[in-house]
Amino acid sequence: MSIQNTTHLNFCGDAREALEFYQSVFGGHLAINSYADFGMPAALPGADKVVFGLVAAENGFRLMAYDIPGRTGGSIAGGGSTRREDNTTLTDQAMFVSIGSDSFDDLQGFWEKLSAGAAIVEPLAASAWSAGFGMLTDRFGVTWSLNVTTA
């Protein structure tokens, strides 16, 4: 048996912009359907918002997102923040998105793109457990953890 786990992010109006950004970072195929595509009258507020969104890349990256009906104000639902203090990561966010690769160079490329407009929690560098680890909260409020997965 085989299963696939795909992160699904819930946004308050910014899902389209976030999905387009993540495709620019990780590559792959982008699929976006709006509420209007599924029958909501186009004249209604929110009909242009994302009801189904997916980025799927050949490198294994997959991410889904949608806009919560009636929610505006942008960013990810739930919000919160993550920061480093006294060598400890402190957060009130429910989840992080973790990306692992056996190539530091690949991670560095993703890091450079994700970090545009981001708050850096932990710079991408060698750590006690990895040849490369970094954490940032992107401009949409999503916290990413990047890690080299081999010794």
Give structural notes.
The chain is an alpha+beta fold and 151 residues long. It folds into two domains: 7-67, Signal recognition particle alu RNA binding heterodimer, srp9/1, CATH 3.30.720; 82-148, Signal recognition particle alu RNA binding heterodimer, srp9/1 (2-Layer Sandwich). It is 15% helix and 36% strand. The protein is built from two helices and ten strands. The protein has helices at residues 15-26, 104-114; strands at residues 7-11, 29-34, 50-56, 62-67, 82-85, 88-91, 97-101, 119-125, 133-137, 143-148. The strands form three sheets. The protein has a four-stranded mixed sheet, covered by helices on one side. The chain has a four-stranded mixed sheet with strand order 7-10-9-8, with helices on one face. Helix 1 packs antiparallel against helix 2. The longest helix is centred in the N-terminal third of the chain and has 12 residues, at 15-26. The radius of gyration is 16 Å and the shape is globular. The protein starts with 6 loop residues before the first strand and ends with a strand. The mean pLDDT is 93.
Layout of SSEs?
Blueprint: E1 7-11, H1 15-26, E2 29-34, E3 50-56, E4 62-67, E5 82-85, E6 88-91, E7 97-101, H2 104-114, E8 119-125, E9 133-137, E10 143-148
Parallel strand pairs: 1-4, 7-10
Antiparallel strand pairs: 2-3, 3-4, 5-6, 8-9, 9-10
